[in-house]
């Protein structure tokens, strides 16, 4: 005989947000029973930049006549590479770290990050902050609120970031460029970017302990194949039944982790977890 157990957002543990708890109507004694995950759905609401990942702070050095250092904190969220570029240039806009090309009705920024699909890489471009004479030749002016003065020699800005941020774009921790330079610079990822650090969702359960898996309580997993904000659905047409540890249980606890078995930070708590419990089949 099989019995179905369904967990939804109503079962979320208020003290452990990545855990869902199903309370049995009465204590259940399991001896020769097994359990399987038959369906799982969850929204892709996993941020890739946030303080808990330690990847949300950048340091921009503006190498004008007197260099100034600006710390830039990214608002928590899910960013693609173009989003990071927009946020970075918006920071420059707010802090008057740009110039105005009035003739072409556009702002001129001196740092950008792009996606280079051909190289399967991210790309940083740094452009020299011009001298006063060069700015005049280009028809560029400082924004009205700018307090910086033109450098005596055209010089690139610099940006520093830690390992956690660098991994998103395929760079080791450090400063780019390492020293201020007097010509435009381009840097490509030195290893594959990981712009979506959460690639899979693993489910663990307090009812099982397998000698063949690590962690030993994995009951199922699903790859994240849907875009941010989309619904992820995993249906197991041939579910794998796992032996329940013989004992008495007041509840089933299902915890959600990423592929590194770190607790998932859930922005959307809506889930559907369908389990089947049955007596162990005799061969």
How would you sum up this structure, described in words?
Helix content is 10%, strand content 41%. The protein has helices at residues 81-94, 132-138, 163-169, and strands spanning 2-7, 12-13, 16-30, 33-43, 57-62, 68-73, 99-101, 106-108, 111-116, 121-126, 140-141, 158-161, 174-176, 185-188, 200-205, 218-223, 231-235, 242-243, 247-257, 271-279. The strands form five sheets. Strands 1, 4, 17, 18 and 20 form a five-stranded antiparallel sheet that branches. A five-stranded antiparallel sheet has the order 2-3-19-15-16, with no helix packed on it. A four-stranded antiparallel sheet has the order 6-5-12-13. Strand 2 and strand 3 (16-30) form a beta hairpin. The mean pLDDT is 96.
Topology:
Blueprint: E1 2-7, E2 12-13, E3 16-30, E4 33-43, E5 57-62, E6 68-73, H1 81-94, E7 99-101, E8 106-108, E9 111-116, E10 121-126, H2 132-138, E11 140-141, E12 158-161, H3 163-169, E13 174-176, E14 185-188, E15 200-205, E16 218-223, E17 231-235, E18 242-243, E19 247-257, E20 271-279
